[in-house]
Specification:
The chain has eleven helices and no strands. With 233 residues, the protein is mainly alpha-helical. The radius of gyration is 20 Å and the shape is globular. The N and C termini lie far apart (53 Å).
């Protein structure tokens, strides 16, 4: 049997993981959606087109690199002795490593391609005729983006949000490298399961893993449902 204190220790990582996934997904919705829109827009200048290709390659790096590699370089970048971390210290700002805010930064970078790709693909599917009519009726780029592009790409945005949320819930390598295992702050459920296995608390590990499996099945069902919607003409 699992006592009450252990149950509390199990619930805390789930809360941290859900909060992290929610904040990460919200940030991607706000900041990565315009990036995907810009990447999908045709470019008349070759230099801009090449820049977009380069940026797409950089964004896709988390798909091919091990999470620990990304986490390691983020740890160095955010460290108080160099990079962004040093700049923060010089300006009397707390460093981001081993904080929830640092986890958010790492999760955004690691989940970026999982959000960008379906949203980018959906923006590409907007008919040219719709774009041309929007240019004629609405001179403002911002209003065209809000009133025309976003509604046309809503399925891709929902799909990207779901994938990013699910992906963040299961993160391990990146969050371990830059967040450690601070209870209530940076200890996510994947790290908690690892620690329970190390402590030979298999009952707790089974229970936490089972909850993650149920959450995973629900998320996969939602993603599959939205994906079918995106394939409709």
């Amino acid at each position: 049997m699992i006592d009450q204190s252990l149950m509390s220790d199990m619930l805390s990582p789930f809360w941290v993981s859900i909060k992290l996934a929610s904040v990460t997904t919200l940030c991607l919705l706000l900041f990565a959606t315009p990036v995907a829109y810009w990447l999908a827009k045709p470019s008349r200048k070759k230099a801009v087109g090449r820049l977009k290709i380069l940026l797409m390659g950089i964004i896709a790096m988390p798909l091919v690199l091990p999470p620990t590699v990304i986490g390691f370089y983020l740890l160095l970048l955010l460290s108080p002795s160099m990079g962004i971390g040093k700049w923060l210290i010089e300006h009397n700002i707390s460093p981001l490593i081993f904080t929830f805010e640092g986890l958010v930064v790492g999760s955004i970078i690691y989940s970026l391609p999982f959000y960008i790709q379906p949203v980018y693909a959906q923006f590409l599917r907007i008919p040219q005729s719709v774009t041309e009519v929007a240019h004629l009726l609405e001179p403002s780029r911002l209003r065209r983006f809000v009133k025309v592009a976003l509604p046309q790409a809503r399925v891709g945005i929902i799909l990207g949000g779901l994938i990013s949320f699910a992906h963040t819930i299961g993160e391990f390598g990146v969050v371990l490298m830059i967040g450690g295992s601070i209870s209530g702050e940076t200890k996510v459920v994947s790290i908690a399961i690892y620690e329970q296995v190390e402590a030979l608390n298999y009952d707790a590990a089974h229970m936490m893993s089972g909850i993650l499996i149920i959450m995973g099945v629900v998320m996969v069902a939602l993603i599959a449902s939205v994906s079918r919607m995106s394939q409709r003409p």
